[in-house]
Specification:
This protein has 202 residues and is an alpha+beta fold. It has two domains: 78 residues, Glutaredoxin (3-Layer(aba) Sandwich); 113 residues, Glutathione S-transferase Yfyf (Class Pi), Chain A, domain 2 (Up-down Bundle). The chain has eight helices and four strands, in the order E-H-E-H-E-E-H-H-H-H-H-H. Strands 2-1-3-4 form a four-stranded mixed sheet, covered by helices on one side. Helix 1 packs antiparallel against helix 6, helix 4 packs antiparallel against helix 5 and helix 6 crosses helix 7. The longest helix has 31 residues. The protein is globular and about 45 Å long. The structure holds glutathione (GSH). The site of glutathione (GSH) has 10 residues, from loops.
Length: 202
């Protein structure tokens, strides 16, 4: 059975879509649009009782949580995106968890208050506070990238994909990268990959 990805590109479903395009995994996109409230439809709640996108159904294996999904798909597919051993697996998991715990909520504040919300509803003070909070994790990433082009190993992996997907929310605040030119270059290179443009179209 073809892999089903539930969601829409303008959501965290972008992450499994990017992974699937990057890895050449065939899939069917089942549209569930959070802006239309479709994540609360009973049919989708039977897939993900949390009422959040994304979720996948891989031949009867149902998974939710975007990072778990991308890590699973990368490992199932194998190849350069996936960890080649347990040490790389640990590092890729570490960076993915780091992105969702240390970066995501602040990066989202930037996205909402600099881009997504109608201008009258934006809170610039919240954006500035988020930019300030992001300085510490971004400095950690900048230091990590001082002598490497990728987060784990010497190739683009699911770790880069997961962390770049989260950092992409901070793009509307160029000043968040002012002290982190290597992070900016790494992020720009990740987001310029052809699979990103493909994933944005579903
Ligand atoms: N930790 C979850 C978060 C999923 C999530 O909150 N998705 C958003 C869309 S990006 C959503 O479904 N929002 C609608 C809602 O919560 O009602 C993940 O990474 O998959």
């Amino acid at each position: 059975m073809t892999l089903k990805i539930y969601g829409v590109p303008r959501s965290r479903a972008f992450r499994p879509l990017w992974l699937a395009h990057e890895a050449g995994i065939p899939f069917e996109l089942v549209p569930v649009d959070q802006r239309k409230g479709e994540q609360h439809d009973p049919a989708f709640l039977a897939v993900n009782p949390n009422g959040h996108i994304p979720a996948i159904d891989d031949d009867g294996l149902v998974l939710w949580e975007s990072m778990a999904i991308t890590l699973y798909l990368a490992k199932k597919r194998g190849g350069p995106l996936a960890p080649k051993d347990l040490a790389e697996d640990g590092l890729m998991t570490m960076w993915s968890f780091w992105a969702v715990t240390e970066v995501e909520s602040h990066a989202l504040q930037i996205l909402y208050n600099r881009a997504l919300r109608p201008e009258a509803e934006r809170n610039e003070a919240a954006a500035i506070a988020a930019i300030d909070t992001l300085r510490k994790p971004t400095a950690i990433l900048e230091k990590h990238l001082a002598d490497r082009d990728f987060l784990v190993g010497d190739r683009f992996t699911v770790a880069d994909l997961n962390v770049a997907a989260v950092y992409s929310y901070a793009v509307p605040a160029p000043e968040a990268f002012a002290a982190a030119p290597r992070v900016r270059a790494w992020l720009d290179a990740a987001l310029a990959r052809p699979a990103v443009a493909a994933a944005r179209n579903g």
